[in-house]
Specification:
Length: 192
C-alpha cells in the first residue's frame, strides 16, 4: 500500500527542529508530509512566550492559516496530524473534511462541534498520563463524543511522560515513550 499524504501541524512552540525530524521520520516510512508554519517563522523556548503569541494571533487566524495550508491538498485525502496545539488544529480540520483519511494526534485534542459527524474516521491519540492539558475526565468524554460522531478511536497513554514527550528539544522529552509512540503511530498509518 502506498504512503499517505500527511498534513503535520506544529505545537504552540512553533515549527521547531523536532517537528521537521518527525516529518522526516514519516517520509522515511514512505509518506508525503507537509509541515506548514502557522506562526510564520516564530518559535519559542518557553510555554509562557508561546502562549502569549498564540493568544495574540487568535484562534480564528490560526485556523484560517491551517485551512489555507491544507486546502490545496485536501482533494487527495489527507491524514491530519499534529502536536499539542497542532493536534487540536488537525482535529478541527479533519472533522471538517469529508475526504480526510485519518487523524493522528500527539499530546492534544480539541472540542467537537455539536453536529460533528464522520464516517468511521480512523483516529489515534498519544498522550502523557497524567497530562494536565488532557485530564482523564476530559479524555473520557472526548472519546465518547468522538465515537458518537462516528470516529474509530484509539488512545495510547504514556505513564510518567511529560506533555510534549516526543520533542527532544524540550524538558518534557521522554525517549522511551517517544519511540513507542512513533512505532505505534507508524503502524497506524500503515493500515490506512
Amino acid at each position: 500500500m502506498g504512503g499517505m499524504n500527511i498534513m503535520l501541524f506544529h505545537s504552540t512552540y512553533g515549527l521547531r527542529p523536532a517537528v521537521h525530524a518527525a516529518a522526516d521520520r514519516l517520509r522515511a516510512a514512505g509518506h508525503e508530509v507537509r509541515v506548514p508554519d502557522l506562526f510564520e517563522g516564530h518559535t519559542f523556548e518557553t510555554q509562557a512566550e508561546a502562549e502569549a503569541y498564540r493568544e495574540e494571533l487568535g484562534k480564528d487566524e490560526l485556523l484560517k492559516r491551517a485551512v489555507l495550508a491544507a486546502a490545496p491538498y485536501s482533494e487527495q485525502g489527507l491524514v491530519y496530524a499534529g502536536f499539542s496545539l497542532g493536534a487540536a488544529v488537525a482535529h478541527t480540520l479533519a472533522l471538517g473534511d469529508e475526504k480526510a483519511r485519518g487523524l493522528l494526534l500527539f499530546h492534544g485534542t480539541s472540542d467537537l462541534a455539536a453536529n460533528a459527524s464522520t464516517d468511521e474516521l480512523p483516529v489515534q491519540l498519544h498522550v502523557a498520563d497524567p497530562d494536565a492539558s488532557e485530564p482523564h475526565d476530559w479524555l473520557n468524554s472526548w472519546y465518547l463524543e468522538m465515537r458518537r460522531a462516528g470516529a474509530d478511536v484509539e488512545i495510547y497513554r504514556y505513564p510518567g511522560a511529560g506533555h510534549l514527550f516526543t520533542d527532544d528539544g524540550l524538558p518534557d522529552y521522554d525517549e522511551k515513550s517517544a519511540e513507542l509512540a512513533w512505532k505505534v503511530a507508524l503502524g497506524f498509518l500503515a493500515t490506512l
